[in-house]
């Protein structure tokens, strides 16, 4: 099993195909991926996209993906990594992919000089909460989230 930071040098067409053919459930809130959107996402200097794969007799199998970005505080110029999504394929869970993805993101955050990694999940998402707690967080807080649609 290997988790890798995806760059513009990777085969994005193949990755998009793997993502769109993978088994996701409602917990993933997965949207259809397309080459152009992923390419534009990766062109930004502040984004980090991780793919976790495993080699099998059938070839490379996608286990999960994650998207995140490096942010800067408006004071002291502290950097922090905001993890937007960590998604593990339904038929690939309980293999350690989510943990490897998070460990990879934490290592990238350290390498980039981030003071902190931040992510959130739903209170009732027991598997995600178990994963994140297993990584020995410095703080666990209950957060209420709000969404505002802009009709754009």
UniProtKB/TrEMBL annotation:
Domain N-acetyltransferase: 1-152
Classification via Gene3D superfamilies: 3.40.630.30
Cross-referenced PROSITE patterns: GNAT
Record SUPFAM superfamilies: Acyl-CoA N-acyltransferases (Nat)
Pfam families, per the entry: Acetyltransf_1 (PF00583)
MF (Gene Ontology): acyltransferase activity, transferring groups other than amino-acyl groups
Name listed for the protein in its UniProt record: N-acetyltransferase domain-containing protein
